[in-house]
Amino acid sequence: MNPKVYEAAKSGDFDSLEAIISRKGEDIFCQTTPKENSILHVAAQYKQVNFIRQILQRSSGPSLLWQGNCKGETPLHLAAKAGSWEAVQVFINLAKSLHWVVENGQVVACKGLLRKPNSHKDTVLHYALRGGHDGVVKLLIDEDCQLCNITNAAEESPLYLAAHRGLPLITDLILRVSPLSLSHKGPKGMTALHATIYRPKTNRRKIMRKRPKVIREADDIGWTPLHYYASYGWVNSVKALLQYNTSAAYDIDKEGQSALHIAAFCGHVNVIDELLRSRPDVCDIMNTEGQTALHAAILGGQVNVVKYTLGMPNLEDIINEQDTDGNTALHLAALHKQYKIIYILAQEKRVDRLATNKDHLTALDIFWAYDEVRLLEHHRA
């Protein structure tokens, strides 16, 4: 692009541009930068609204509106990225005046420009969101609410992006849109609710209330938001989620692990207590290896969870539950050399010390095989 043309667009000096046009004609509108930005792209990038208006009044101006650069970005993309509400409004007004279609029996402005994606399938709404430009986001949504249903190549919906970036005002704006026009999807199977896990300022309660289906949707490893809350021991988040849907406590990941399994493995007794208060029978859930939450606690070496479980009445079935290899909790403790847990279980009357696994071994047989008798005596002492 001619340096004087570029400077005129950057500074908004339309008089200088007219002088160049008078000498060389409107062919200069075909010039681009190394990124293939047109003169309209440059003006949008630097928020030169009056310059944009004057460009669009020239005969060659409107055609630049749909022209993409090397990334497929239109001038509208760059205006949204810059957060220029006025420039975005100018582009929308021109698009309305040039293109009209019939949609659902009504004459409406063509949405082609607003929905035009870049090379990564980002719309202008994605750009405005990343910049945190509330006013531009509201303008775009008011003009075309269907933008909220468009995901990019990374499978990021606008709602997911807003939640992921911790933008509560924009999240609220998007949640006001009709559910039929709203996607909550994110990358790797995640949803907008997954995105709020690390963004405490985002209104996760409003997402759960407005989009209740996200509560039980799992990511690529099968984890729902409840699995994550359980793993971190966030009991308040667990309580909040279960207020909207207690059935989420039954959801399992691809290995059959429930939130109870995760909490037990990580040693979060307060989360376990909340899950059992909400759905007492979740203690019956077994993973793909036939293991209960008590097995998970032993694998995680969580003495406090074992004590908690033994302190609950009428749990003989869980205490002596055998996994697919026939191992009880006591077997697992012996296999994984969890000496403190071995001692605790061995003292519990409800534990079946003579239970055998598929190899016809008792827990004591396994312990003898490891030749750890003296260490056991030490712990008993």
UniProtKB/TrEMBL annotation:
Q: Which PROSITE patterns match?
A: ANK_REP_REGION, ANK_REPEAT
Q: Which InterPro entries match?
A: Ankyrin_rpt, Ankyrin_rpt-contain_sf
User: What UniProt keywords apply to this chain's record, in alphabetical order?
Assistant: ANK repeat, Repeat
Q: Which domain of life is it from?
A: Eukaryota
- One short Pfam name that applies is Ank_2
The UniProt record lists the keyword ATP-binding: no
The stretches annotated as ANK repeats are: 71-93, 255-282
Q: Which SUPFAM superfamilies match?
A: Ankyrin repeat
Designated name of the protein? Uncharacterized protein
Q: Which organism is it from?
A: Eucalyptus grandis (Flooded gum)
Q: What lineage is this protein's organism placed in?
A: Eukaryota, Viridiplantae, Streptophyta, Embryophyta, Tracheophyta
